[in-house]
Amino acid sequence: MTHDQTASLEEEEAGDRPKWDNKTQYMLTCVGFCVGLGNVWRFPYLCQSHGGGAFMIPFLILLVLEGIPLLHLEFAIGQRLRRGGLGVWAQIHPYLTGIGIASMCVSLTISLYYNTIIAWILWYLFNSFQEPLPWSQCPMNANLTGFVSECERSSPVDYFWYRETLNTTPTIEEDGGLQWWMVLCHICAWSLLYICIIRGIETTGKAVYVTSTLPYVVLTIFLIRGLTLKGSLDGVKFLFTPDLTELAKPSTWLDAGAQVFYSFSLAFGGLISFSSYNSVHNNCEQDAVIISIINGVTSVYAATVIYTIIGFRATERFDNCLSGNILTLLNVFELPEGDITDSNYNQVVQRLNETYPEVFQQLDLTTCNLNTFLIEGTGLAFIVFTEAITKMPVSPVWAVLFFIMLFCLGLSSMFGNIEGILVPLQDLKVFPKTWPKEAVTGVTCIVCCLVGLIFLQGSGNYWLSLFDTYGGSIPLLVVAFCEMVSVVYIYGIDRFNDDIKFMIGHKPNFFWQATWRVISPLIMFFILIFYFVTKLSEQLLYKVWDPESDKFPTLDEKQYPVWINVIIFILAGIPSLAVPLVSLALAFYCTVYVDSSVCSQEHGMYH
Amino acid sequence: KYLFSINSALGDQAYVWNENEMFLFRATLAFAMRTYSDGQEYDVANVVVCDETPRVSFWFVVTSPLDASLLVDKRRVEEAVRKSRSRINSAFLLTDDTLEFIGIPPTLEAPVAPDTPPWLIAFGVVMGGVGAGIVVLLVSSVKRDGEEETGGKTENEAASDAIYNMSFSDDEPVTQM
Questions:
Q1: Band of pLDDT at residue A601, cut at 50, 70 and 90
Q2: If both were cysteines, with which of A270, A420, A542, A560 could A107 make a disulfide (CB 3.0 to 4.6 Å apart)?
Q3: Contact between chains at B6 and A337 (C-beta distance less than 8 A)
């Protein structure tokens, strides 16, 4: 498609193609898609486990060398070719349709389980409107003589998460049946999503005014509240204390690269789609840089806020442990109160140990140390953070705010995921053209809702981690790598440079040339190989909550049954293999049916 | 056996443990025995305290009012204490945690269970709102489709307006936010 043809196409499409009401909606939608739950519960974990402040160095370097170029590429190609995640690849070359199909499959896999996480968040949100919060105390057992044994052996937050929310089974084979309360929340989550995407970006564009901005408001409120709590600054210090020796380890760099990649929601097809609704002369270069910076800053900001609260929780736990020990010592040695305080605790313990060693050994005091929690994912949000909230005054308010924030973060990411499914489905002409948009989105939501019922069984949590680990990791890397190679070497970097010059007025400078041609593809390649090797070489184990096991309440590790390998292959293998397989299939088909419309480019590149 | 932890409970407002406080203790215990045991007239003299430590912990026994050398059965004393626990606690401005009886665990209060779980109410509100919203949007889009079919001419005018207003590039080459 020549540049003049693009401009005239834009005019023809004016009535048909959706477009943004204003630039703000577009930016907010992209920011909402990129900023998601990972910024809140994956980045702080990586930061703390890879040397604190030192992790910023690989993170920022890879943000600039990997994130921004890939983002600019997706924005530019979408804006230029004015098609969604599948159409752009079909237009570059019909044989590349496999990339689009792969990214549609990945978006589908991820949408299925991501909305279940939102259902969990909604369940906690609905349960936050009561005082005291239900996860702050154990329920009584049947004959009211004490607390439920499973809860007593673990903790109220663990019990609420594993038993009252998930009702989890000890293994993935036992499905435990559907949990009706989760089914209700699941339907609610899909209904809320449906009402926001019912007319495509017309409704989504309005919804993002709230869903993309509210998390920042809540984070700021939590920051202010967090800083007034005791021990919060220790938490932040712990998070950012740099340990420069971590920089020498390759796993740090690879984790940073993977985090940058997943955090930008690349290769879903959603970003390409969103930018295709822009006008041709929109400055996509500037957008890419701005959104990358916002994403990076949000990760750091969210990490700071989370760690003020975690620092508070760790300090409180330490104080409680200390008071408990002091009380035990006072009782056993019959000392008046006030003899042992926090400050002279160590000396007193030393003295008592020397004077009465036998008695002391029998006491078996727990050593109290101020270690913050190295935890990520759902454990961080639903166990650690909820526990911290119960210790803050006026807990229900904080719980409601926290879960509304998580809900908004998740929902705005879902908008992008769903876009990555809907637009390819329309391009593939799965739905009849006469169907209105509301019906298309409705059917998609209903089908995904029904398939998503897998995750609401007793074993649902295990299925979800399976999907997350295998369905959402390797295929994305494969698609992104193929995207780069296709645009740079098949579409042609010179043609791409000319397109960008036409769109924004100047040719991309040396930085973009270097990163697109060499640096970013190399980085993607290394990360892909690393992931592939690690995943293949590690044993297929998963963590379970088993009240019968010896290790209870720590999670027990079990091996996956053999048939899970089939599922893993379907999740990870099929989308990745779709790229070459579809190429081969189309190559064969087109040599036989030369004149078929599928085989020629719609607005041919070579005309 | 009794254990008092006054400082940890009251902090700055802690009172000093002295003879008068001990007297109050013996009086409350006599009250407990009178009310919840066999109804005999127990007196302060019937509560015997021994082995007091600076920790503020001590042992005590209760003698029968009829015969000073006869000790009341431990189980009956425990039962009386358990039933009047809250009164004894509040007499000393303490709680079950800070006023410990070795051997008598605190009775647990059954948590209040509301008839409708609160989460169902929140869920109902949200689903109601969402359902209403979906219905409104679907009805309005059906109406809009109906109007578009009848007003074909107006659609073309609207399309040409859209061309004029659409591209950002008309005014400035670089899109400002």
A1: low
A2: A420
A3: yes
